[in-house]
Amino acid sequence: MSKRVTWVSTLLFVALISVAPAYANTPLRVIASFSVLEELVKRIAGDAVSVNAIVPRGEDVHRWELTPPNVLALEETHIVFYNGLGLEPWIRHIEAMKRDQLTLVNVAERADYTPQMITTGQFQGEPNPHLWMDPEGAAAYIDVIASTLAEHLPDQADTFYKRAEEARHALQELSLAVKERLEGIPKTNRTLLTSEASFAYFARAFDFETESIWGVNSETQGSAEAMAAMSERIGSKRPPALFYESTAPCIHMDALARAHSLPLAGPLYVDSLSGEDGPAANYSAMLRHNAEVMHTALGGATAE
User: What is the pTM of this model?
Assistant: First the structure.
C-alpha cells in the first residue's frame, strides 16, 4: 500500500473516531470548497457565520489533496458547500468521513440552472462544472446558499434572504457592466481559446465562442493529440490572441502562441480568486478583470 493511501486512510480513521459533540451552542461554522464559492457564501452569511475555504486562493480546486489542517477544520464544521459536477474529485474523502452533524451541500446540482456538457477531453459529454462563470449561474448558487443557511439558522432567515436579493441585483448589474465592456470586440474576434473548458457559461452569457485543449484540469493535460487539435483550430480561426488561466500551467498555450506567432494574454481567473491585493480579489473583480483582459487582447474599442 502506498504512503499516500495509508495517510488518507489514517486521516479518515482519525476523523471518524474524533469526538463530535452537538454544536447547538456554538456559532455556525461553514467551509466552502474553493475561494469563489467562499466569497459567495460570505455575501449571504455575514458576520454571524464563520466561513473558510478548503482550497487556498491561487491553488487549483480540481487537483487539490486534503491536508491535515483541512481534516481538523472539518471536525468542527457544520456545513460544507461544494460545487459538485466533478469539480472537486477529492470530495469523496469528505463524504467518507461525514458525521451526522455535518451537512454537505452540492451547490451546482441543487442550483436552478441548466448545465452545459463538456465538449472535449476525457470528460466529454459530462456536465461542465463552471456554472458560476455566468452571473446567472452565480445567482442560482446564491439561492442555494441562502436557503441552506436559513434552514440552519431560521431566526436569521429573513436576513439571509434579504442579502440574497441584494446579491442577485448586484449580479445583474455586474452582468450588464461586463457586457458593456465586451461590446466593442468585433464579432470575428469573439473567440476564447484557453487551456481548460471553463468559459462555456461565460461564452454563452456574453456571446463568445470558446474552445480548449482539455475539458477540466483534473484530467491528463496537453497530450500530443489535444495540442495538435488545438493548433489546427487556431490555424483555421486565426484569433487575435490566446489566453491562459491563473491555476492552469501556461506552457501549453505559450507553446501554441509561439508556434502561431500570436500574443498570449492573461491570466484569466476561473477556479480561484486572486490574493486580496490582486486583480480578482472577489467575484465581481474577477469577472471585470477577465473582461478587461479580453477587451484589450481581442481588439475592443478604445474610449475616445
Answer: 0.90
